[in-house]
Amino acid sequence: MKRILWFIIGTAVGVYAVTRLKKRAQLLAPDSLQASAEKVAAAIRHFGDEVREGMAERETELRDALGIDTEAADDRKDYR
């Protein structure tokens, strides 16, 4: 009777461990890593765009406040 009980407990623990390891392996698979990297890259790009937009707005405010001609600033190219 004891052997059957330990066999059942061992089988249950084994099935649980294999299931958990399978889920963990899927999270660490190259596809999910690629998706995570794409999300991080998109967030960084979005942050950079927001910073550039804020810088442009602030530059316009400063030029208006100082009375600097804005035509020279409009001739510059965006080098992104």
Protein described:
It holds the Pfam family DUF6167. InterPro entries: DUF6167. The mean pLDDT is 85. With 80 residues, the protein is mainly α. It is built from 3 helices and no strands. The N and C termini lie far apart (73 Å). Helix content is 84%, strand content 0%. It has one domain. It is rod-shaped, with a radius of gyration of 29 Å.
Please outline the helices and strands:
Layout: H1 2-27, H2 30-66, H3 71-74
Pfam family, one: DUF6167
Roughly what percent helix? Answer: over 70%
Order of helices and strands: HHH
User: Count of DSSP E strands?
Assistant: 0
| Structural class by sheet pairing and helices | mainly alpha
Radius of gyration: 29 Å
The pLDDT mean sits at 85
Q: Proportion of β residues?
A: under 5%
Task: Kindly give the count of domains.
Answer: 1
- What's the helix count? 3
Low-confidence stretches: none
Oligomer: single chain
Major sheet characteristics:
none
First-last Cα distance? 73 Å
Shape: rod-shaped
